[in-house]
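Entry
Fold in C-alpha cell form

___
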Amino acid sequence: METYSLLRQLADSWVLLLLTLFFVGVVLFVFRPGARRAQKDAAESIFRHETRPAEADDKESR
C-alpha cells in the first residue's frame, strides 16, 4: 500500500473520528455547569474601567 492511500484511509476514518470527538469535547466544555461566570467575566473585561481610567499600578493594565 502506498503512503498516500494509507494516509487518505487514516484521515477518512480515525482522524475524522478524533476531530469529531474533539469538537464535541469543546462544546461540552463551553456549556459545562459553572462556566457562565468565567464567560461573562471574559465578555465584560473590556468594560472593566469604563467609568474611570485604570490606575498606573493596576496589575490588569499590564
In short: Residues 3-30 form the longest helix (28 residues). The two ends are 56 Å apart (CA to CA). The chain has two helices and no strands.
